[in-house]
């Protein structure tokens, strides 16, 4: 037995990486808009450099993205041609509430997504909607300090009520926060956090994390109340940490590093703060800002399924001499000598994918959903825009085979698979266009030049065949 008959094959994007139209349709400014490409990008993402608006000497790729705001019908038609069963996309919060704290939503923004969802259904595509994919209205950051402020829970709750009611019947699969553990690694991107000098950054990150965890539970509660057919998932940036050696200290380091990320999903899926996290925070003097009702809310409104991204495994060591880190990833890792790497230094590990799936399913015993996986690579199109991307096909073939093994041989309960960046889009990490993931080539470069013309790559027809055979034919 392979994948289920109703397995949800598809692709994934994020509003801030593809939509564009940053100042159209009543949309307000968001954190993701004001992050430029170039040397200042990472310090801003980390919350170390304050950048709350546009500067003339920088290029901001999210302003236009790949202009999906105006071209979504053309793009969804291509997804339909590939046979997508689902399309994972995200809502731009500031398109619905431009400032984030209004009492009434922006009708033009609501209508845009309603039309987009209806376009999906025209092709038999089920929308899988991420409510917040690194998206926070800039007004909420300037006025309230981002997710460090408890008031954002209320603003997020308002957003959720509007979305669940407006799109009842159009959307039944929801994710609350994309890669929620990214708060620890890129806090401005993950939670709209900017740190003043002298602040306890770790304490603020966990304060913001608590507010997002409470907001996620509230969203789950409201989704089930509005429509019992709604299924709500959490979303983890996943990938096991291997010990560099079999030295016991290295093994324990890998366990601790895995727990840093599992912590979020432990709360969202199991309904309570794990004891290891409480002990760690006690040692560090970090106080979690619980208020009355939080404990019950977290306990009673856990997620229905676990979704995650997987690109590579990681390796850790306690030896200070072993410190050569791989490049190009927000998650630092020591180079694993047994693995090859992508052009951006991400180590390619299909068996690590299967291992990660097993670890998550063993831990949570809830259905899994792979909502991001793929290869970022430099594509060279011919004069017709055609890319012979055998390297991408090879990467995906190996990973889908490993995923099939996890289902067939290990008994993992898997709902679906959406490859990341099914159409070329702006990289969340580096802001580049040349780091491409798509089955569809978009004529645009790192500086924003190009016609934005769409063209099919070789992987387009390959993935179409994978979907048509429900993952049986990977040749």
From TrEMBL:
GO terms for molecular function: beta-glucosidase activity. SUPFAM superfamilies: (Trans)glycosidases (SSF51445). Pfam families: Glyco_hydro_1. InterPro entries: GH, GH_1_N_CS, Glyco_hydro_1, Glyco_hydro_1_AS. GO terms for cellular component: cytosol. GO terms for biological process: carbohydrate catabolic process. The keyword Heme does not apply. Signal peptide: none annotated. Gene3D superfamilies: Glycosidases. The active site is at residue 372. Keywords: Glycosidase, Hydrolase. Belongs to the glycosyl hydrolase 1 family. This is 6-phospho-beta-glucosidase.
């Amino acid at each position: 037995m392979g994948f289920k008959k109703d397995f949800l094959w598809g692709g994934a994007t994020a509003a801030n990486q593809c939509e564009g139209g940053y100042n159209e349709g009543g949309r307000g400014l968001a954190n993701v808009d004001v992050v430029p490409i170039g040397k200042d990008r990472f310090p801003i993402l980390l919350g170390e450099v304050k950048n709350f608006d546009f500067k003339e000497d920088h290029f901001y790729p999210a302003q236009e993205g790949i202009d999906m705001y105006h071209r979504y019908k053309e793009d969804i038609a291509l997804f339909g041609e590939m046979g997508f069963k689902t399309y994972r996309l995200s809502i731009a919060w500031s398109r619905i509430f431009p400032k984030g704290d209004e009492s009434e939503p922006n009708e033009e923004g609501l209508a845009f997504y309603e039309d987009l969802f209806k376009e999906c259904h025209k092709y038999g595509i089920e929308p899988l909607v991420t409510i917040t994919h690194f998206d926070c209205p800039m007004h909420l950051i300037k006025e309230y300090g981002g997710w460090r402020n408890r008031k954002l829970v209320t603003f997020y709750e308002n957003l959720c009520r509007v979305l669940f009611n407006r799109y009842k019947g159009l959307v039944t699969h929801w994710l609350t926060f994309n890669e929620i553990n990214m708060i620890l690694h890129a806090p401005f991107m993950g939670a709209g956090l900017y740190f003043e000098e002298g602040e306890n950054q770790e304490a603020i990150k966990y304060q913001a994390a608590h507010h997002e965890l409470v907001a996620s539970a509230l969203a789950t509660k409201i989704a089930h109340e509005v429509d019992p057919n709604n299924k709500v998932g959490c979303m983890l940036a996943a990938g096991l940490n291997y010990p560099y050696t079999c030295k016991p200290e290295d093994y324990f380091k890998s366990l601790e590093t895995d727990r840093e990320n599992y912590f979020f999903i432990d709360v969202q899926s199991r309904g309570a703060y794990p004891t290891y996290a409480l002990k760690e925070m006690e040692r560090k003097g970090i106080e979690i800002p619980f208020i009355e009702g939080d404990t019950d809310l977290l306990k009673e409104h856990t997620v229905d399924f676990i979704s995650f991204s997987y690109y590579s495994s990681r390796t850790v060591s306690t030896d200070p001499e072993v410190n050569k880190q791989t490049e190009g990833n927000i998650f630092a890792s020591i180079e694993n000598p047994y693995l090859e790497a992508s052009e951006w230094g991400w180590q390619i590990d299909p068996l690590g994918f299967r291992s990660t799936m097993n670890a998550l399913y063993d831990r949570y015993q809830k259905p899994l959903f792979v909502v991001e996986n793929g290869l970022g690579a430099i594509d060279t199109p011919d004069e017709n825009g055609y890319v012979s991307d055998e390297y991408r096909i090879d990467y995906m073939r190996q990973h889908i085979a490993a995923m099939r093994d996890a289902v067939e041989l290990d008994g993992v309960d898997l709902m679906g698979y959406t490859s990341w960046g099914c159409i070329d889009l702006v990289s969340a990490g580096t802001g580049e266009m040349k780091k491409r993931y798509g089955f569809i080539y978009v004529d645009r470069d790192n500086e924003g030049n190009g016609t934005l013309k769409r063209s099919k790559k070789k992987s387009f027809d390959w993935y179409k065949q994978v979907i048509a055979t429900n993952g049986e034919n990977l040749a």
